[in-house]
Write a structure and sequence with these properties.
Helix content is 45%, strand content 21%.
Length: 463
């Protein structure tokens, strides 16, 4: 019970940090852009809805907390006039601070290009923030060197229809091409399996005359994901990161230890070590490791950990020791780190767009949508794995926030941009009544999504 309570506290604190930082970054983008083009900013709020008593007035801007703990907003003079009713209430209703602002300092008085810049500044700031975080991680910690295309194991328990041929793969098989494209890393392998355009995917292996052919349509995103998840790369059983306070540390394992035997079985790969550890919750499998040219015998007690079986959905208990595999890293200078930050941000955006496509087409269930509770849980898990993992999660969520805000839903930035683009094409804005009508619709769509996400979060807590 204490461990669960402790984890809940970590999740709450980590979730607040993640959401708070990213809301601040996003709204700071709008704030700075508005100020730079001379728009009066009436309110800078964490949270939505009516203002709480917590806040401070500095100049013309009210910096405050609002009652609904989702998102935040920057209220600019002039933009509030068509956000009446429920949608306007989401951003605290009409701001009394707006009275007396000169007309030339209102949002609608500015040229179209300036308004587009202001509305797009939030997502731009989130994207730049992600680049900065990924670049800092690449410069400080380096990035994993991924040159493996050799199969370590195949999980045959959850293969989708049409992928049975994967059962013929054996540990040590090296993948050289997928659908005719040469692969040089495991990332290449997984990307090719997920994004191959045709239904039939040819996997060519070194030393085999005939390819392995599977038949999984591109439209079936969850099935493609199962194919990618079923394959794991061949990694040597060398200890890398060791989490403090976990069984690996208590047993005396050290980074760079090479595990040669576990539970009396020879260990040839990281996957074979994981199998032995997971099968021994609460027991004491002996380990033999090579360390500095000599062999050392150790005893470890894997912690019983409940997990959900991907094939059946049933919960089972496995052993975990709190250690990860050693992965060589490449370190970068300033220029290289920034380039790596850009590449990582683009790759993350591609993954999020792929997921959104699956939600829109119905290939991914709406039950997978998560809200603030899920964010807190994931943030807590990443925080317990160390600073680098936590920062990487913040960067990923920053990209996620940027893309979601670009959805063409009135109330979100994407909806405002649609209004402005229509104005650019028509040479005149939509009427006030039209904007109000679409904004009200967008409000109810957004509330529905928020309610679904929160309901999914609550259901997960009881599973």
């Amino acid at each position: 019970m204490f461990l669960n309570a402790n984890f809940t506290l970590v999740a709450i604190v980590a979730g607040i940090v993640v959401i708070g930082v990213l809301i601040f970054v996003h709204e700071l983008g709008h704030f700075l852009a508005a100020k730079s083009v001379g728009i009066a900013v009436l309110r800078f709020s964490f949270g939505l809805g009516p203002r709480t008593p917590i806040g401070i007035q500095i100049g013309e801007t009210d910096y405050c907390l609002s009652w609904i703990p989702f998102g935040g907003f920057v209220k600019m003079a002039g933009i509030e006039e068509f956000e009446e009713g429920a949608a306007g209430a989401l951003e605290g209703g009409l701001a009394a601070e707006g009275r007396g602002i000169p007309p030339e300092r209102t949002f609608d008085a500015k040229p179209l290009w300036a308004r587009i810049v202001v509305i797009g500044a939030g997502v731009t700031m989130n994207a730049l923030f992600a680049v900065l975080v990924y670049a800092a991680l690449a410069g400080t910690y380096g990035t994993p060197v991924d040159t493996v295309t050799t199969v370590g194991a195949v999980d045959t328990t959850a293969l989708p229809a049409g992928a049975a041929a994967l059962k013929t793969l054996r540990p040590g098989d090296r993948i050289v091409r997928v659908d005719g494209d040469t692969v040089t890393s495991w990332h290449d392998v997984q990307r090719a399996l997920l994004l191959a355009s045709g239904a039939r995917i040819r996997i060519e292996l070194a030393g085999r005359a005939e390819p392995v052919v599977i038949d999984v349509p591109h439209e079936e995103s969850p099935a493609r994901a199962k194919v990618a998840d079923a394959l794991t790369p061949l990694q040597p059983a060398v200890i890398g990161e060791i989490l403090p306070g976990r069984p690996a540390e208590a047993a005396g394992l050290q980074s760079r230890d090479s595990v040669v035997a576990a539970g009396g079985e020879p260990i040839l790969s990281w996957d074979s070590l994981v199998r032995v550890i997971q099968a021994s919750p609460g027991r004491t499998p002996s380990l033999v490791v090579e360390r500095a040219g000599r062999r050392v015998a150790l005893t470890v007690v894997p912690s019983p950990t409940p997990v959900r079986d991907p094939a059946t959905g049933a919960e089972r208990t496995v052993g975990k020791i709190g250690a990860g595999p050693f992965v060589p890293v490449r370190r970068f200078g300033i220029v290289g780190a920034v380039g790596q930050g850009v590449r990582q941000t683009v790759q993350t955006a591609g993954l999020i767009l792929y997921t959104l496509k699956g939600l829109v087409t119905g290939q991914i269930s709406a039950r997978d949508i998560g809200g603030p509770i899920l964010v807190g849980q994931m943030a807590g898990e990443m925080a317990q794995l160390g600073l680098a993992n936590f920062l990487a999660f913040i960067a990923l969520f920053s990209v996620d926030l940027a893309i979601l805000n670009l959805l063409p839903i009135p109330v979100l930035d994407g909806g405002h941009l649609v209004f402005l683009l229509i104005e650019g094409v028509r040479r005149r804005p939509l009427s006030l009544a039209q904007r109000q009508r679409w904004t009200q619709i967008g409000f109810f769509v957004l509330v529905g999504i928020m309610a679904l996400a929160l309901a999914n979060d609550v259901l997960r807590l009881f599973h």
